[in-house]
Design a protein that fits this description.
By secondary structure, this protein is of the alpha/beta class. It has one domain (2-118): STAS domain (Transcription Regulator spoIIAA), CATH 3.30.750. Helix content is 47%, strand content 29%. The protein has helices at 23-39, 58-73, 86-99, 110-118; strands at residues 2-5, 12-19, 44-53, 76-83, 104-107. Helix 1 packs parallel to helix 2 and helix 2 crosses helix 3 (86-99). It is globular and about 35 Å long. The mean pLDDT is 91. This is STAS/SEC14 domain-containing protein.
Amino acid sequence: MSVRRLDSKEPIIEIIWDGMVSHEEVEQTNREIQHIAQQLDHSFDVLVDMRNMKAFSQETKEKIVEHQKLLTQWGMKRASVAVGSAIAKMQLNRISKESEHQTEFQWETYDEALAFLTK
């Protein structure tokens, strides 16, 4: 798991989910994003790399629903997600529905996900 502001003209926060993501990692990610969002005047896009992530556990899935709601509250305009597996994609679709997150776009590659945000 890692979080950083991308070095670009556009205000983009990159999140990389890797392996089995724990609910503690989601909470740490939220703290880091909240800090970066303040620096970006609460207006930003999110680039999520899930290509090497396994499925979320039930406990982590609940934290991700909360995470998506918080991102919207903190000023996220759009999320562009590079999804690796069909299982992760199905889970992500369910999570987005539960969190009522409607500004998420999914791509097969990281480059496609990034290009969407930088056009």
